[in-house]
Specification:
single chain; alpha/beta; seven-stranded mixed beta sheet; 18 strands; binds zinc ion
Length: 344
């Protein structure tokens, strides 16, 4: 079968690899009908060091169950499923608490250990706990939005939860990538009154406004902080959704949160220590977040997608075939595309 392999910075290839197959009795084999390139894929695409082992990429997919192991109970061949970016048993103490990304038996797709979903098929460990069966056929028009439940919509929702977004709150979203845009949807869905999008790509800003952003701040650094303060009566926002993962983004996040506010961070951190610890302390800020337990959010978000109340699938502005995957990485990395869907 064909699959995406990252060999080094800027070097991503489509290759023929051994077919994915069942290994454990709790596995399912899923034929991938749609996958994505993720903003987080761009980190190794930019930074992978020579000598690091090749990685089979991809952690977001919708597909059709092709085979199940002997111990799989809830899935059957032909089911249309969403694959969350992490696999989990759905049963351990952390899964029961809704924190599936800390599953004792779980792990992440698209790592050196677990082959990813930018491929014709993917082996899904702990399939009963991991996969989410959709009540629709695989060609339904809602598939783009349902595909975002794999990662970006659930991750935006997690940022909003960690930042304690609620009715009437003021919110800032840092980052205008697909997660940031989904974070706008999530903030609005949870009742935020003011949603300030911080980003500077015109196409993304336009989409953010359609998703519910009430203000846009395109400045960076100190100027951005000043603008947010001006927009919020001098105090800053209740909730900051940090969807980038750099030291600068985190510093800005802490600087624009009002006293007693919260920062929800979902950008994979590329800094050693959380910056600005003094203002965070003196302003009594809560800093939370981490890898989103998107599996836990699927039940909650599904009805809103099915009934058209949210349309996170609009973040996909390019659909490509497998042959075009290297160019898809290049385009996302060059910010020519917001989010790329891979459709074999
Ligand atoms: Zn678990």
């Amino acid at each position: 079968m064909r699959a995406t392999v990252l060999y080094g910075a800027g070097d991503v290839r489509i290759e023929n690899v051994p077919d994915a197959r069942l290994i454990e009795p709790t596995d399912a084999l899923v034929a991938v009908s749609r996958a994505c390139i993720c903003g987080s894929d761009l980190w190794p695409y930019q930074l992978m060091k020579p000598g690091e082992p090749p990685r089979r990429m991809g952690h977001e997919a919708i597909g059709v169950v092709e085979a199940v192991g002997a111990e799989v109970r809830t899935l059957k061949v032909g089911d249309v499923v969403v694959m969350p970016f992490a696999f989990s048993d759905g049963a351990c103490v952390f899964c029961q608490e809704g924190l599936h990304t800390s599953c004792i038996h779980g792990g992440f797709f698209g790592t050196v250990e677990v082959p990813g979903a930018q491929a014709e098929a993917v082996r899904v460990p702990l399939a009963d706990g991991t996969l989410f069966v959709l009540p629709l056929g695989e060609d339904d028009a809602l598939m783009a939005s349902l595909l975002t439940l794999s990662d970006v919509m659930g991750t935006g929702h997690h940022a909003a939860r960690a930042a304690k977004v609620g009715r009437g709150k003021t919110v800032a979203v840092i980052g205008d990538g697909a997660v940031g845009l989904c974070a706008v949807i999530a903030a609005r869905r949870l009742g935020a009154e003011q949603i300030i999008m911080m980003g500077h790509h015109p196409d993304r800003i336009a989409l953010a406004k359609e998703f519910g952003a009430t203000d846009v701040v395109s400045e960076r650094g100190e100027e951005a902080v000043e603008r947010v303060r001006k927009l919020t009566g001098g105090f800053g926002v209740h909730s900051v959704l940090e969807c980038v993962g750099t030291d600068q983004a985190m510093r800005t996040a802490i600087s624009i949160a009002r006293p007693g506010g919260a920062v929800g961070r979902v950008g994979v951190p590329h800094y050693e220590a959380i910056p600005a610890s003094e203002p965070a302390f003196y302003n009594n800020l809560t800093v939370g977040g981490g890898p989103a337990p998107v599996r836990a959010y699927m039940e909650e978000l599904l009805p809103d997608v099915l009934e058209g109340r949210i349309e996170p699938g609009r973040v996909f502005d390019r659909v490509i075939t497998f042959d075009q995957v290297p160019d898809g990485y290049r385009a996302m990395n060059a910010r020519e595309a917001i989010k790329v869907m891979v459709k074999p």
